[in-house]
Amino acid sequence: MSFPKDFLWGAASAAAQIEGAWDEDGKCPSIWDVAGDHIENGQTCHTACDHYHRYKEDVALMKELGLKSYRFSISWGRIIPEKGRINPKGIEFYRNLISELRAAGIEPLVTLYHWDLPLWVHEEGGWPDPKIIDYYLEYVRAAVDAFSDQVQYWMTFNEPSVFIMLSYAVGTFAPFQKDIEACMEALRNMLLAHGKAVRLIRETARTKPVIGLAMAATTYIPDSEDEEGLKDAAEKSFLSQVGEGSNSLYMDLIALGKASPILSQKLSEEDLKIISEPMDFVGVNVYQPSNPLLNKEGYDTEKLPKTMLDWVIDGRCLYWTIRQYWERYHLPVMVTENGMANPDEVGADGCVHDEIRRTFLHDFLQGVSRAVDEGIPVLGYQHWSIMDIFEWCSGYGPRFGLIHIDYETQKRTIKDSARYYAEIIRTNGEAL
User: Fold this and answer.
1) 297 included as an active-site residue
2) In the predicted model, is pLDDT for residue 294 greater than 90?
3) What is the full DSSP assignment across 155-216?
4) Which of 159, 185, 244, 277 is catalytic?
5) Residue 3 counted as domain residue
6) What pLDDT is attached to residue 278?
7) CATH number for 172
8) What is the rounded average pLDDT of the residues 130-156?
9) d(CA 240, CA 64)
10) Is residue 302 part of a domain?
């Protein structure tokens, strides 16, 4: 079986990681704009890749690579920079970007929240305060009103488990808080905001919407593919600690309406009904398998390559994530992130020879191909990321992009891996 003709071959990004223009045209700061000493080498996301001013050049490069889709996030603080006020300049930027994508034949896939909480919302209490549900819905309504004539695909949140747990319990992501009770309140508010947003989009979008969200969704590779091995792997994959809890603590609630013991006392029957508002697909963000996270005996990480962030590279994990999510939730799957960090450099010949990413693409996409061959409804593959980015607290060291960014000059250079990916897209997967 070949890939479907309408398969969404694409790449992804997030507003705070590429846009820059952090205080231009009426935008307010986000919690990442004021992260200060928490960022490696004192760096900021204030300029990043300057995509705000260079989006036409960037879309032209996407078209050159043959992308069929582009997943990006909208900056909440660019749309609503203060309570109750919609910013026309923010609306204009994203309408221009979406129009440019449409003109290039690229499907826009919109993520409504990718971690850049407006500072004013944080100061009002942030995710632990129930007021945020109404603030978020006000923002979602503004975005849907402004863009749904040209946007069909919507994602409410990116990796909610990460921005809730790491931001409010562990304290390693903005706003860098360590308060378990506040974390649990933030979790409840985010889940209710998600469910209400799904309903709002469904009821108000001008183009019939396709709605999901993107989960930090890595799963466990089975030791064997017999019945016992598959059952054991699925059980391990949906332990609450795997993927920061995405696979059960969050997705069981969102897709099945089932609350874990951790949350059962905090959620009413009406809450469960709201949270489990039906979606059209689930996005999976996959970087490494769960096996090393669980310290599984017999899984030898020393024999496997690793990224510069020390993440294990094992292409099999993408297939198993897709399959296990499909079998558990019965929702079409989109690979919303998959990629690797590498210290790429432009060589003397003016090229970026990132052979390790080329191999990564081949191995992980083999897993997508297998899932498609088995009849699992896979909507698309969004490589992370379209270009080198601001990698949150790690700053600009790790490079995930298909396109190299010289952060001093903002020069863009298409990497070898991107040329390889372009050929895969051109042949609709036959080049694999």
Assistant:
1) no
2) no
3) EEEE-HHHHHHIIIII--STT----HHHHHHHHHHHHHHHHHHHHHHHHH-SSPPEEEEEEE
4) 159
5) no
6) 98
7) 3.20.20.80
8) 98
9) 42
10) yes
